[in-house]
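Handout for the seminar on molecular recognition.
Each group receives one record of this type.
Step one: identify the two inputs.
Step two: read the structure output and locate the region that could contact iron/sulfur cluster.
Step three: write two sentences on what you found, then compare them with the reference statements printed after the record.
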Amino acid sequence: MSKYQLKRIFIEKDVADSSVTRQILSILSDIEIEYIDDYKNINVDGATTDDVFKKSKECLAIAGKKGGLVKEFRCRGGIVGNTEYFISHGNNCSFDCEYCFLQCYFDNAVPTVFVNHDEILDEIKNVLLAEAEKRIVFHAGELCDAMAFDDLTGLSCKLIQLFSEYPNARLELRTKTTTIENLLNLKPADNIVVSWTFSPQVIIDNHEHKAPSLEERLCAAVDVQKAGYNIGICLDPIILRDDWFDHYKAMLEMLIERLNMESVKFISLGGFRYLPSLSKVIKERDPQTNLLLNEFVPCVDGKHRYFRPIRVEAYKEIGTVIRALNKDVKISLCMETPEVWNSMKDILK
Ligand code: SF4
Protein backbone atom coordinates (compact mmCIF):
# COMPACT_ATOMS: atom_id res chain seq x y z
CA MET A 1 0.00 0.00 0.00
CA SER A 2 1.43 3.38 -0.98
CA LYS A 3 1.80 6.04 1.70
CA TYR A 4 -0.85 8.05 -0.15
CA GLN A 5 -3.56 5.43 0.54
CA LEU A 6 -5.14 6.19 -2.81
CA LYS A 7 -8.41 4.60 -3.85
CA ARG A 8 -8.65 5.94 -7.40
CA ILE A 9 -6.47 7.51 -10.08
CA PHE A 10 -7.89 9.73 -12.82
CA ILE A 11 -5.74 9.98 -15.93
CA GLU A 12 -6.31 12.41 -18.76
CA LYS A 13 -6.31 10.45 -22.01
CA ASP A 14 -3.89 12.95 -23.61
CA VAL A 15 -1.14 12.15 -21.08
CA ALA A 16 -1.91 8.46 -20.56
CA ASP A 17 1.25 7.45 -22.36
CA SER A 18 3.62 10.15 -21.12
CA SER A 19 6.84 9.01 -19.48
CA VAL A 20 5.96 10.68 -16.15
CA THR A 21 2.53 9.00 -16.11
CA ARG A 22 4.17 5.62 -16.73
CA GLN A 23 6.68 6.32 -13.96
CA ILE A 24 3.86 7.18 -11.51
CA LEU A 25 1.90 4.06 -12.42
CA SER A 26 4.96 1.87 -11.97
CA ILE A 27 5.03 3.03 -8.33
CA LEU A 28 1.25 3.05 -7.71
CA SER A 29 0.04 -0.31 -8.82
CA ASP A 30 -3.28 -2.04 -8.11
CA ILE A 31 -5.31 1.15 -7.88
CA GLU A 32 -8.52 1.66 -9.85
CA ILE A 33 -7.90 3.89 -12.86
CA GLU A 34 -10.44 6.04 -14.67
CA TYR A 35 -9.48 7.67 -17.97
CA ILE A 36 -10.92 11.16 -18.41
CA ASP A 37 -10.88 14.03 -20.91
CA ASP A 38 -10.22 16.97 -18.60
CA TYR A 39 -9.14 17.06 -14.93
CA LYS A 40 -11.23 20.19 -14.39
CA ASN A 41 -14.43 18.18 -14.88
CA ILE A 42 -13.74 15.54 -12.22
CA ASN A 43 -16.70 15.17 -9.93
CA VAL A 44 -16.42 13.32 -6.62
CA ASP A 45 -19.71 12.62 -4.83
CA GLY A 46 -20.25 12.63 -1.10
CA ALA A 47 -23.05 12.92 1.44
CA THR A 48 -21.69 16.18 2.93
CA THR A 49 -19.17 18.86 1.94
CA ASP A 50 -16.66 17.30 4.32
CA ASP A 51 -17.28 13.89 2.79
CA VAL A 52 -16.59 15.23 -0.72
CA PHE A 53 -13.27 16.74 0.40
CA LYS A 54 -12.22 13.60 2.26
CA LYS A 55 -13.08 11.35 -0.67
CA SER A 56 -11.37 13.71 -3.14
CA LYS A 57 -8.16 13.54 -1.12
CA GLU A 58 -8.15 9.76 -1.59
CA CYS A 59 -7.79 10.27 -5.35
CA LEU A 60 -5.00 11.47 -7.60
CA ALA A 61 -5.41 13.06 -11.02
CA ILE A 62 -2.67 12.90 -13.62
CA ALA A 63 -3.10 15.67 -16.15
CA GLY A 64 -1.43 17.96 -18.65
CA LYS A 65 -1.93 21.66 -17.97
CA LYS A 66 -2.30 23.77 -21.04
CA GLY A 67 -0.65 27.17 -20.61
CA GLY A 68 -0.17 29.22 -17.46
CA LEU A 69 2.53 26.88 -16.20
CA VAL A 70 4.52 29.79 -14.82
CA LYS A 71 2.63 32.75 -13.43
CA GLU A 72 3.66 36.07 -12.03
CA PHE A 73 2.69 36.43 -8.40
CA ARG A 74 2.02 39.95 -7.17
CA CYS A 75 0.47 40.93 -3.87
CA ARG A 76 -2.72 42.92 -4.20
CA GLY A 77 -2.52 46.68 -3.65
CA GLY A 78 -2.08 47.57 0.02
CA ILE A 79 -0.15 44.38 0.82
CA VAL A 80 3.65 44.37 0.93
CA GLY A 81 5.51 41.75 -1.10
CA ASN A 82 7.98 41.28 -3.93
CA THR A 83 6.92 40.07 -7.35
CA GLU A 84 7.79 36.40 -7.83
CA TYR A 85 6.97 33.68 -10.34
CA PHE A 86 5.26 30.52 -9.25
CA ILE A 87 5.46 27.21 -11.01
CA SER A 88 2.11 25.56 -11.59
CA HIS A 89 3.07 21.90 -11.26
CA GLY A 90 -0.13 20.66 -9.64
CA ASN A 91 -3.34 21.53 -7.82
CA ASN A 92 -4.32 20.63 -4.25
CA CYS A 93 -2.39 18.07 -2.21
CA SER A 94 -3.07 14.93 -0.23
CA PHE A 95 -2.97 16.66 3.15
CA ASP A 96 -6.11 18.28 4.51
CA CYS A 97 -5.31 21.52 6.30
CA GLU A 98 -8.45 23.07 7.69
CA TYR A 99 -7.31 26.57 6.68
CA CYS A 100 -6.19 25.69 3.12
CA PHE A 101 -7.38 28.42 0.76
CA LEU A 102 -7.45 25.93 -2.11
CA GLN A 103 -10.71 24.58 -0.66
CA CYS A 104 -12.50 27.51 -2.28
CA TYR A 105 -10.17 28.02 -5.21
CA PHE A 106 -10.59 25.09 -7.60
CA ASP A 107 -13.58 23.29 -9.07
CA ASN A 108 -12.60 20.10 -7.26
CA ALA A 109 -10.33 19.08 -4.39
CA VAL A 110 -8.64 16.14 -6.09
CA PRO A 111 -4.84 16.34 -5.79
CA THR A 112 -3.62 16.76 -9.36
CA VAL A 113 -0.12 16.50 -10.81
CA PHE A 114 0.75 18.02 -14.16
CA VAL A 115 3.02 15.64 -16.01
CA ASN A 116 3.89 17.78 -19.05
CA HIS A 117 7.24 18.53 -17.42
CA ASP A 118 8.99 19.53 -20.66
CA GLU A 119 6.46 22.31 -21.18
CA ILE A 120 6.79 23.43 -17.56
CA LEU A 121 10.59 23.60 -17.92
CA ASP A 122 10.29 25.43 -21.25
CA GLU A 123 8.03 28.09 -19.74
CA ILE A 124 10.44 28.56 -16.83
CA LYS A 125 13.36 28.87 -19.27
CA ASN A 126 11.48 31.50 -21.28
CA VAL A 127 11.05 33.64 -18.15
CA LEU A 128 14.66 33.05 -17.06
CA LEU A 129 15.94 34.19 -20.46
CA ALA A 130 13.58 37.18 -20.67
CA GLU A 131 14.54 38.35 -17.17
CA ALA A 132 18.21 37.32 -17.34
CA GLU A 133 19.46 40.67 -16.02
CA LYS A 134 17.32 40.54 -12.89
CA ARG A 135 17.67 38.40 -9.76
CA ILE A 136 14.24 36.83 -10.09
CA VAL A 137 12.64 34.45 -7.63
CA PHE A 138 10.49 31.45 -8.51
CA HIS A 139 8.61 29.32 -6.09
CA ALA A 140 6.77 26.03 -6.23
CA GLY A 141 4.13 25.31 -3.65
CA GLU A 142 1.52 28.00 -4.30
CA LEU A 143 -1.34 25.77 -5.48
CA CYS A 144 0.05 22.36 -4.44
CA ASP A 145 2.73 21.48 -1.87
CA ALA A 146 6.02 21.60 -3.84
CA MET A 147 7.23 18.17 -2.72
CA ALA A 148 3.93 16.39 -2.03
CA PHE A 149 4.23 13.97 -4.94
CA ASP A 150 7.93 14.32 -5.70
CA ASP A 151 8.63 10.64 -5.09
CA LEU A 152 6.13 9.89 -7.88
CA THR A 153 6.96 12.63 -10.37
CA GLY A 154 10.65 13.44 -9.75
CA LEU A 155 10.02 17.05 -10.76
CA SER A 156 12.44 18.46 -8.15
CA CYS A 157 15.38 16.76 -9.93
CA LYS A 158 14.53 18.52 -13.18
CA LEU A 159 13.94 21.89 -11.50
CA ILE A 160 17.16 21.79 -9.51
CA GLN A 161 19.17 20.79 -12.56
CA LEU A 162 17.64 23.68 -14.54
CA PHE A 163 18.14 26.31 -11.85
CA SER A 164 21.74 25.22 -11.27
CA GLU A 165 22.38 26.62 -14.78
CA TYR A 166 20.88 30.00 -13.82
CA PRO A 167 22.66 31.05 -10.60
CA ASN A 168 21.19 34.58 -10.77
CA ALA A 169 17.67 33.25 -10.26
CA ARG A 170 16.42 31.61 -7.10
CA LEU A 171 14.01 28.73 -6.62
CA GLU A 172 12.11 28.14 -3.40
CA LEU A 173 10.43 24.76 -2.88
CA ARG A 174 7.69 25.20 -0.25
CA THR A 175 6.56 22.13 1.61
CA LYS A 176 5.26 20.41 4.73
CA THR A 177 6.39 16.96 3.59
CA THR A 178 9.10 14.44 4.30
CA THR A 179 9.34 13.48 0.62
CA ILE A 180 13.00 14.47 0.35
CA GLU A 181 14.71 11.41 -1.15
CA ASN A 182 15.29 13.06 -4.53
CA LEU A 183 16.85 16.10 -2.89
CA LEU A 184 19.27 13.93 -0.93
CA ASN A 185 20.46 12.26 -4.12
CA LEU A 186 21.18 15.52 -5.98
CA LYS A 187 24.02 17.98 -5.87
CA PRO A 188 22.51 21.02 -4.14
CA ALA A 189 22.81 24.43 -5.76
CA ASP A 190 23.24 27.60 -3.75
CA ASN A 191 20.22 29.27 -5.39
CA ILE A 192 17.78 26.60 -4.18
CA VAL A 193 15.94 27.10 -0.88
CA VAL A 194 13.76 24.37 0.56
CA SER A 195 11.32 25.96 2.97
CA TRP A 196 9.16 24.14 5.49
CA THR A 197 5.99 25.39 7.04
CA PHE A 198 6.32 24.58 10.72
CA SER A 199 3.48 24.66 13.20
CA PRO A 200 3.34 23.65 16.87
CA GLN A 201 2.21 20.04 17.21
CA VAL A 202 -1.06 21.13 18.85
CA ILE A 203 -1.90 23.15 15.70
CA ILE A 204 -0.96 20.21 13.46
CA ASP A 205 -3.16 17.87 15.54
CA ASN A 206 -6.11 20.23 15.37
CA HIS A 207 -5.88 21.81 11.94
CA GLU A 208 -3.33 20.15 9.62
CA HIS A 209 -4.96 16.78 9.10
CA LYS A 210 -2.92 14.04 7.43
CA ALA A 211 0.21 16.25 7.38
CA PRO A 212 3.56 15.15 8.87
CA SER A 213 4.22 15.90 12.53
CA LEU A 214 6.47 18.74 13.64
CA GLU A 215 9.21 16.25 14.51
CA GLU A 216 8.97 14.60 11.07
CA ARG A 217 9.18 17.95 9.28
CA LEU A 218 12.14 19.05 11.39
CA CYS A 219 14.01 15.77 10.79
CA ALA A 220 13.44 16.17 7.04
CA ALA A 221 14.70 19.78 7.13
CA VAL A 222 17.79 18.76 9.13
CA ASP A 223 18.57 15.99 6.62
CA VAL A 224 18.11 18.30 3.63
CA GLN A 225 20.27 20.93 5.30
CA LYS A 226 22.98 18.35 6.03
CA ALA A 227 22.91 17.45 2.34
CA GLY A 228 23.97 21.03 1.61
CA TYR A 229 20.74 22.89 0.87
CA ASN A 230 19.64 26.28 2.11
CA ILE A 231 16.53 26.17 4.26
CA GLY A 232 13.63 28.54 4.90
CA ILE A 233 11.31 28.53 7.90
CA CYS A 234 7.70 29.60 7.37
CA LEU A 235 5.41 30.15 10.32
CA ASP A 236 2.33 30.65 8.22
CA PRO A 237 -0.46 30.60 9.13
CA ILE A 238 0.20 31.56 12.73
CA ILE A 239 -2.96 30.52 14.56
CA LEU A 240 -3.77 32.28 17.81
CA ARG A 241 -5.39 30.29 20.60
CA ASP A 242 -5.33 30.82 24.36
CA ASP A 243 -1.93 29.25 24.94
CA TRP A 244 -0.41 30.08 21.52
CA PHE A 245 2.72 31.86 22.76
CA ASP A 246 4.11 28.97 24.80
CA HIS A 247 3.66 26.57 21.88
CA TYR A 248 5.31 28.85 19.31
CA LYS A 249 8.16 29.70 21.72
CA ALA A 250 8.87 26.02 22.44
CA MET A 251 8.78 25.23 18.71
CA LEU A 252 11.16 28.07 17.82
CA GLU A 253 13.62 26.96 20.52
CA MET A 254 13.54 23.46 19.04
CA LEU A 255 13.97 24.66 15.43
CA ILE A 256 16.79 27.08 16.17
CA GLU A 257 18.63 24.56 18.33
CA ARG A 258 18.51 21.76 15.77
CA LEU A 259 18.91 23.61 12.48
CA ASN A 260 22.20 25.16 11.42
CA MET A 261 21.09 28.78 11.34
CA GLU A 262 23.91 29.77 8.98
CA SER A 263 22.06 28.24 6.07
CA VAL A 264 18.57 29.31 7.17
CA LYS A 265 17.83 32.04 4.64
CA PHE A 266 14.75 33.47 6.35
CA ILE A 267 12.01 33.02 8.88
CA SER A 268 8.72 34.35 7.52
CA LEU A 269 5.69 35.09 9.68
CA GLY A 270 2.10 35.24 8.47
CA GLY A 271 -1.06 35.33 10.53
CA PHE A 272 -4.07 33.20 9.60
CA ARG A 273 -6.22 34.97 7.01
CA TYR A 274 -9.18 34.00 4.92
CA LEU A 275 -11.63 35.14 2.30
CA PRO A 276 -15.33 34.92 3.26
CA SER A 277 -15.72 32.08 0.72
CA LEU A 278 -13.15 30.03 2.65
CA SER A 279 -14.81 30.61 6.04
CA LYS A 280 -18.02 29.23 4.54
CA VAL A 281 -16.27 25.98 3.56
CA ILE A 282 -14.46 25.73 6.91
CA LYS A 283 -17.75 26.07 8.82
CA GLU A 284 -19.58 23.69 6.52
CA ARG A 285 -16.89 21.05 6.94
CA ASP A 286 -16.67 21.44 10.72
CA PRO A 287 -19.34 23.54 12.45
CA GLN A 288 -17.50 23.07 15.78
CA THR A 289 -14.17 24.45 14.55
CA ASN A 290 -12.39 26.95 16.77
CA LEU A 291 -10.29 28.27 13.88
CA LEU A 292 -12.57 31.26 13.32
CA LEU A 293 -13.12 32.09 17.00
CA ASN A 294 -11.21 35.33 17.35
CA GLU A 295 -11.49 38.97 16.42
CA PHE A 296 -11.04 39.11 12.63
CA VAL A 297 -11.36 42.23 10.49
CA PRO A 298 -11.65 42.63 6.70
CA CYS A 299 -8.46 44.06 5.19
CA VAL A 300 -7.60 46.00 2.05
CA ASP A 301 -7.27 42.82 -0.07
CA GLY A 302 -10.67 41.45 0.99
CA LYS A 303 -9.13 38.88 3.36
CA HIS A 304 -10.03 38.76 7.01
CA ARG A 305 -7.12 38.94 9.44
CA TYR A 306 -6.75 39.10 13.21
CA PHE A 307 -7.48 42.66 14.40
CA ARG A 308 -4.29 44.60 13.68
CA PRO A 309 -3.15 45.31 17.32
CA ILE A 310 -3.59 41.61 18.10
CA ARG A 311 -1.47 40.41 15.20
CA VAL A 312 1.19 43.09 15.61
CA GLU A 313 1.54 42.03 19.23
CA ALA A 314 1.79 38.36 18.18
CA TYR A 315 4.44 39.11 15.52
CA LYS A 316 6.40 41.19 18.04
CA GLU A 317 6.34 38.46 20.66
CA ILE A 318 7.43 35.82 18.14
CA GLY A 319 10.06 38.16 16.66
CA THR A 320 11.47 38.88 20.12
CA VAL A 321 11.80 35.16 20.82
CA ILE A 322 13.63 34.67 17.50
CA ARG A 323 15.96 37.61 18.12
CA ALA A 324 16.82 36.34 21.61
CA LEU A 325 17.82 33.01 20.05
CA ASN A 326 19.47 34.33 16.90
CA LYS A 327 20.51 37.90 16.12
CA ASP A 328 21.24 37.49 12.43
CA VAL A 329 18.52 35.48 10.71
CA LYS A 330 16.35 37.45 8.30
CA ILE A 331 12.76 37.78 9.56
CA SER A 332 10.04 38.88 7.18
CA LEU A 333 6.27 39.10 7.10
CA CYS A 334 4.03 37.31 4.66
CA MET A 335 1.06 39.12 3.05
CA GLU A 336 0.97 42.00 5.49
CA THR A 337 0.11 45.67 5.24
CA PRO A 338 2.67 48.52 5.27
CA GLU A 339 1.35 49.60 8.69
CA VAL A 340 2.17 46.20 10.20
CA TRP A 341 5.62 46.12 8.56
CA ASN A 342 6.24 49.57 9.95
CA SER A 343 5.30 48.50 13.49
CA MET A 344 7.83 45.69 13.23
CA LYS A 345 10.77 47.54 11.73
CA ASP A 346 12.98 47.21 14.85
CA ILE A 347 12.76 43.41 14.70
CA LEU A 348 12.67 42.71 10.96
CA LYS A 349 15.74 42.84 8.77
S1 SF4 B 1 -0.21 21.32 2.70
FE1 SF4 B 1 -0.70 23.28 1.70
S2 SF4 B 1 -1.75 22.70 -0.18
FE2 SF4 B 1 -1.79 20.90 1.14
S3 SF4 B 1 -3.74 21.02 2.26
FE3 SF4 B 1 -2.17 22.00 3.53
S4 SF4 B 1 -2.27 24.19 3.03
FE4 SF4 B 1 -3.33 23.06 1.37
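Reference statements: The pocket of iron/sulfur cluster is lined by residues 93, 95-97, 100, 102, 144-145, 176, 211 (CB under 6 Å). Residues 308-325 form the longest helix (18 residues).
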